[in-house]
Design brief:
heterodimer; A: 19 helices; globular; B: mainly alpha; two-stranded antiparallel sheet; disordered C terminus
Chain lengths: 498, 522
């Protein structure tokens, strides 16, 4: 009897592997790196980083070029949904991965750490995040999330010789594990309620977004399911570091290697926001009566906490952590606005891009201004940076200015568009809080700028080890800075988010 | 909406672009080609001034009422949000555009003296500031109006922090935080106008037309006006939001102080006259009484504080805060004559305060102190400096023959029609400013010579100090003797805008749509 090849044919056609070619390409590239290391151990510090960077750069360009080409939306059953937003976020994570590898190159060279594994894991995480933001099924969501998180545990404790890094990795493992557990428990509660045949609108697949939405439309007040939804959102809030799920930020940002901190601060946060948007505007939309006020309250305390806690910090990694919390708060305003204003989603995407450009600029400077111990990066190390190295100094000033939202830099446009969205959604109280937050934030951003730019005659500058950026890094940082300035002047560069 | 730009439109765009281009060239070449620094910077300040005078010449000839001339437009990628770079000048902005170019030229020339190693960076920042200042008054798009203001504000902070006098680090921080708050509040107000109008456009002309036909509800107008008033008020140092100004100006390097006190500070008043009052008449009417009280605080309380100052630069800082009170009083009356007077005073005060800061810096460098009681007897060594300073002080007091007189005079007339009591309060301000102004002259130039003045050879004004002083002085006298030079344009524009009676119409309909994420992805 001849085998029925039809089954394979259906399988191959139905699953449309081509639709996830970017993720597959990242996975292949990651594996290729490991293989190259085995085959050519002699070139592991020359050839392989080059392959990693070039490969990612090519992927980034191709992704950006095909940003409007959306694969048929319902490939892979209901596991993934392809959309323009998904493509935009693919570009975002590709850019993040590339930037982290660049910054990582500086850090790993200095600490004499193996590079291949680092690049490998960054690529795995990039692919994981791409899948994460496109998933429309809880199983897919959880698997992608764990791919990302577990790789991040490893990256956080990547510097095995540093106590701070190991401690941070351990803390991240425990707290991340807790948040995953909460998330999973929430999913289980929803699964149990939505699959309950006694309730109206019993879901055929109680883990798929579309079925859950139908269920919640009929059972918006089923308290077990609602608690499940709350737990799922709490798990996601851990990712975006919204208060009160922010406790991990300080220690882990400080202890993690600088490029990994950048990864956590930008890519991990962004993926959390897109997942959050997908959840509250997708399956949980019937629960808007809970989530709208809840997220608004979270936004208020997140903005206030992040900014106030940022003021007294002396360690710049912690400043970035606290400022990241504050930015999460501004973005939460966008999420709340997205309930009623369509344009808020574009505003969030725009904000994420400008936040990425500015943050990586600042983090790449941090990687060059570092003491022996990567976890101790104090404001005083920045004394007279602009004079000692005008290039690093100006990259830092532009990055911080953009984070602070100073025109004509891109960060200002991000805030402006976000505020317009919030205005259209009539979130006046949140806007007021955001303004207070922005004004407070000036004090720590400018405190940092002040330390780097204005000479202080009373204090002798502590000259920490200043690493002179290589030519590649100069190009990389120059591109980030130029983009930050030019997006502020000509927003058409990011027109694809609209 | 896409009118083809005229040649004059390109000239206007050019006037704004030239300083920016020069600053970029200067930052690229400054360190190597020392000889290029001064010509490049001079070009960056001089060309806009020439263009401004050419445009003003055409403008006066055309006399187009409240309409805008020299329009030009460019899309910067946010046209879907109604944001377009749209430039043009009307009767209110023309004099202020002229002011920016004149004061900019004076400050630029003054900044060129000396051979500091980092001189070119200072000039780069000053040129960026000049770009912003010219852009503020040329913007028809409200968003760019704000944008250019920040463009000019940021270099000020950096200049204070790097080249400022004592307490510069502290003053720069305080000013940054305070002015960011003001800018943020006014930004919120502007966004509120944008969203509430429902027009999806930041274009001032279409907003005016739209809101004239369908004014916003009273409460909405009041709320937005309150935001704008406090936001702009902080930026213009309205009492009690003024505390950043004296310390900031005392610490700022001279050219930065000239441009900030002379021109940039007028941003808030300009915003009130050009945007807030015409678009939100009911809101303005609601707050006019409160505004009068606060402005009286500026004039009387700050006036008294000014009298007690012994530090020359700080005294000038306070006096500039005080004089802003007059401008606010002119605006609060909401009459054609009062508002015209306010615009005229903005011009006159801009020129005179820039001249005062310039001369004060010349004095402090010569006497090696800013404390007036420690000065004295400078007249014998520097008669020309003394002459300029006396003239500038008299102008700032409001003596006839100087531009300030016409501004203050028309404001008092307008105020008398609105509230005679406040007019009396305002006029006492003249006495106060005469006291501190003349006392400063006496302390600095007359009396026994201080040790520094006695022992050193002190030169009178050098050429790079005299040129800017003459430029500013001529502007003061020209408008003072013949105010028609700018007052016709102002008057025409203001009578056109403010003739409309205050009316109230029902609440606007704000379309609220609920769409979810999937719509976005189509």
């Amino acid at each position: 009897m001849s085998p029925d090849y039809g089954v394979f044919k259906t399988f191959a056609e139905a699953n449309q592997w081509l639709a996830i070619w970017p993720e597959l390409a990242y996975g292949t590239l990651a594996l290729l790196l490991l293989m190259l290391e085995v085959l050519f151990p002699r070139y592991k510090n020359t050839l392989i980083p080059r392959v990693a960077l070039t490969g990612q750069a090519i992927l980034l360009v191709v992704l950006a070029a095909t940003i409007r080409r959306v694969a048929s939306p319902d490939a892979f059953g209901e596991l993934l949904q392809f959309s323009v937003t998904g493509n935009i976020m693919r570009v975002f994570f590709a850019a993040c991965g590339l930037a982290v590898c660049y910054i990582g190159g500086v850090y790993l060279k200095r600490e004499r750490l193996p590079r291949v594994e680092f690049f490998h894991m960054v690529m795995v995480i990039s692919a994981g995040m791409m899948l994460l933001v496109q998933s429309t099924h809880f199983i897919m969501l959880f698997v992608a999330l764990e791919t990302v998180t577990i790789s991040l545990y490893l990256l956080v404790s990547y510097c095995r010789t540093s106590v701070a890094s190991l401690e941070a990795g351990f803390k991240y493992l425990i707290q991340g594990g807790l948040s995953s557990a909460i998330l999973l428990f929430g999913m289980v509660l929803i699964y149990g309620s939505a699959g309950n045949p006694l309730l109206p609108g019993t879901a055929g697949d109680p883990l798929a977004y579309s079925d859950i939405r139908v269920f919640f439309e009929l059972n918006a007040h089923n308290y077990v399911a609602v608690i499940g939804a709350l737990m799922v959102v709490s798990g996601v809030c851990f990712k975006i570091a919204a208060v009160p799920f922010h406790v991990w930020v300080g220690d882990i940002y400080q202890g993690a290697p600088t490029p990994v901190t950048a990864f956590l601060a930008v890519a991990s946060k962004a993926s959390g926001f897109i997942v959050l948007l997908g959840l509250v505007l997708g399956p949980f939309l019937p629960l808007a009566y809970i989530f709208k006020p809840l997220l608004a309250a979270l936004a208020v305390i997140t903005i206030l906490f992040g900014n106030i806690a940022g003021v007294g910090q002396q360690n710049v990694k912690r400043i970035m952590g606290m400022s990241g919390i504050a930015h999460a708060g501004y973005l939460l305003i966008g999420v709340v606005a997205a309930f009623s204003v369509e344009m808020a989603v574009s505003a969030i995407l725009f904000y994420l891009f400008v936040y990425m450009l500015a943050s990586f600029g600042v983090f790449s400077v941090m990687a060059h201004v570092s003491r022996e111990d990567d976890s101790i990066m104090l404001l005083e190390d920045y004394g007279d940076l602009l004079k000692d190295n005008p290039f690093l100094g100006s990259v830092l000033v532009v990055g911080l200015g953009s984070l602070a939202g100073i025109p004509p830099l891109a960060g200002f446009m991000g805030k402006l568009i976000l505020f317009i969205a919030a205005f259209q959604a009539q979130l006046y109280v949140l806007l007021g809080v955001a303004i207070v937050g922005v004004v407070i934030s000036i004090s720590y951003y400018f405190g940092w700028i002040k330390a780097a730019v204005f000479r202080n005659p009373e204090v002798e500058p502590v000259h920490s080890t200043l690493y002179i950026p290589s030519r590649t890094m100069r190009v990389f940082m120059g591109v980030l800075t130029l983009l930050t300035i030019s997006v502020g002047l000509y927003q058409g560069i990011l027109s694809f988010v609209f | 909406m896409n009118e083809p730009a005229t040649t004059d439109g390109y000239l206007l765009l050019g006037a704004i672009a030239v300083p920016l281009v020069c600053s970029i060239l200067l930052s690229a070449t400054g360190r190597k080609a020392k000889g290029l620094v001064r010509p490049l910077a001079l070009a960056g300040f001089l060309i806009p001034t020439v263009i401004a005078f050419m445009l003003w010449n055409t403008f006066s000839a055309e006399a187009s009422g409240s309409g805008y001339l020299f329009m030009t437009q460019a899309d910067l990628g946010l046209s879907s949000l109604g944001i377009n770079l749209k430039l043009g000048l009307n009767g209110i902005s023309m004099p202020l555009f002229l002011l920016a170019s004149i004061v900019g030229l004076a400050a630029g020339v003054y900044a060129m003296r000396g051979d500091d190693e980092n001189k070119h960076w200072y000039l780069v920042l000053l040129l960026i500031m000049q770009t912003g200042l010219l852009g503020v008054f040329a913007s028809i798009d409200i968003f760019f109006f704000y944008f250019f203001h920040e463009f000019a504000l940021i270099p000020t902070f950096i200049m204070i922090g790097l080249w400022g006098g004592r307490e510069r680090r502290y003053a720069a921080m305080e000013m940054t935080i305070y002015l960011t708050l003001g800018a943020m509040l006014s930004l919120l107000g502007l966004i509120a106008v944008y969203t509430k109008s429902g027009l999806n456009s930041f274009d001032m002309i279409s907003l005016k037309a739209h809101l004239a036909a369908m004014p916003l509800g009273d409460v909405v107008q009041q709320n937005i006006f309150a935001l704008l008033l406090i936001g702009f008020g902080i930026l213009v140092s309205l009492f009690p939001f003024h505390s950043w100004a004296p310390r900031g100006y005392a610490a700022a390097p001279a050219s930065a102080a000239m441009l900030h006190a002379g021109v940039l500070k007028k941003f808030g008043l300009y915003g009130l006259v050009q945007i807030a009052l015409p678009l939100l008449p009911a809101g303005a009417a609601h707050f006019s009484n409160m505004l009068l009280w606060l402005a009286a605080g500026n004039v009387v309380l700050i006036g008294l504080v000014t009298m007690t100052q012994t530090d020359l630069k700080r005294m000038l800082g306070y006096s500039s805060v005080m004089h802003m009170g007059y401008a606010f009083m002119g605006i609060a009356g909401f009459s054609i004559i009062g508002v015209s007077g306010a615009v005229l005073l903005m011009f006159a005060h801009g020129v005179s305060v820039a001249l005062l800061f310039l001369l004060a810096d010349c004095i402090c460098r010569r006497t090696q102190t800013c404390e007036m009681p420690e000065m004295g007897g400078l007249f014998k060594k520097t008669p020309i400096l003394c002459g300029f300073f006396v003239a500038a002080s008299l102008a700032s007091i409001g003596l006839p023959g100087f531009a300030n007189f016409w501004g203050e005079f028309t404001i008092f007339v307008g105020l008398w029609q609105f509230s005679p009591a406040f007019a009396v309060v305002a006029i006492t301000g003249i006495v106060i400013s005469a006291i501190y102004g003349l006392r400063a002259v006496a302390r600095i130039f007359y009396g026994p010579a201080s040790a520094v003045v006695q022992d050193n050879t002190i030169e009178d004004l050098a050429i790079c100090e005299r040129t800017p002083a003459v430029i500013l002085f001529v502007a003061l006298i020209a408008v003072g003797v013949f105010p028609k030079l700018i007052s016709d344009d102002i008057n025409m524009a203001i009578s056109d805008v403010y003739k409309a009676p205050v009316t109230t119409v029902a609440e606007p309909v704000v379309p609220a749509t609920t769409q979810d994420i999937s719509n976005h992805e189509s």
